[in-house]
Amino acid sequence: MLAFKAVSSQKEEEWSQALTTCRRLLEGLADELHPASTELTKGRALNQAQYVNRLWAFMDKVIESESNRELAKAHVDFLGAWMEKTNKLSNKGVHAEVSQVEAVKAIFHAYLVVADILEYLHNAPSKSGQKDINFATIDELEAVLNVSRATAKEIVKARISNGKLSKEILKEIKGIGRKTLEKAEQAFSI
Questions:
Q1: Domain boundary among 67, 95, 123
Q2: Per-residue pLDDT tens digits for 61-100
Q3: How far apart are CA 79 and CA 52, in angstroms?
Q4: Distance between CA 178 and CA 175 in Å, rounded?
Q5: Distance between CA 112 and CA 82 in Å, rounded?
Q6: How many other β-carbons are positioned within 10 Å of the β-carbon of residue 56?
Q7: Which long-range contacts (CB under 8 A, 24 or more apart) does 109-116 make?
Q8: pLDDT tens, 165-179?
Q9: How many CA atoms lie within 13 A of 131 on its CB side?
């Protein structure tokens, strides 16, 4: 929202600040999805400054379907190229000449990039190797936990109203007893 507010201004300096905000958003996303490390992945450095490479490394890990791998990789490369362009625009500096249109395009594209990356988030393995319960569908919850459709819907409602699920939140849902909670802990990362 800060970036949109900044590009709505008539001050060129704020347009550049909007691009800096976008870059920080992408850096923060990279920090969460693939923290910096000294390792190289496919020849790419993954240090703190290399947030685009870290986003690519995240994408490399979460693309599951072999049949879609090439297409998805091309899409990742496209996204990476756009992130690089956004990065270059953002690094022009606060007092650089950035047009308002250029800033608006970069902001909208940054949001599209983030949306595309987050679409793959449900494929990311948890630390335990289990699927995150926060991305399970109603059908998955119903089948895996052997609960009624109504209980599965209540789980999703609790997830939405709390932002994410925890064991404590699951315990409070009608239809979730000790056995169902045990199934949830075995089947999903919570």
A1: 123
A2: 776 655 555 665 665 566 566 656 655 665 655 545 678 8
A3: 9
A4: 10
A5: 10
A6: 24
A7: 109/82, 110/3, 110/22, 110/25, 110/26, 110/83, 110/86, 113/26, 113/79, 113/82, 113/83, 113/86, 114/25, 114/26, 114/29, 116/75, 116/79
A8: 999 999 999 999 999
A9: 13
132 residue type, one letter: D
- 25 is in which domain, residue-wise? 2-123
Beta bridge partner(s), residue 44: 41
Residues 143 and 105 in one domain: no
Structure tokens at 157: 């409602």
Same domain, 180 and 111: no
Does 151 share its domain with 71? no
Grouping H, G, I as helix, E, B as strand and the rest as coil, residue 189 is strand
Which residues partner with 132 through β-bridges? 189
What is the distance between the alpha carbons of residues 90 and 29, in angstroms, rounded to a whole number? Answer: 16
Are 117 and 138 in the same domain?
Answer: no
- Assigned token pair, 107: 């902001």
Instruction: Give burial (CB, 10 Å; 0-12/13-18/19+) of 65.
Output: exposed
Joined together, the tokens standing for residue 96 give: 């650089």
Q: Are residues 92 and 11 in the same domain?
A: yes
Do 97 and 160 share a domain, yes or no? Answer: no
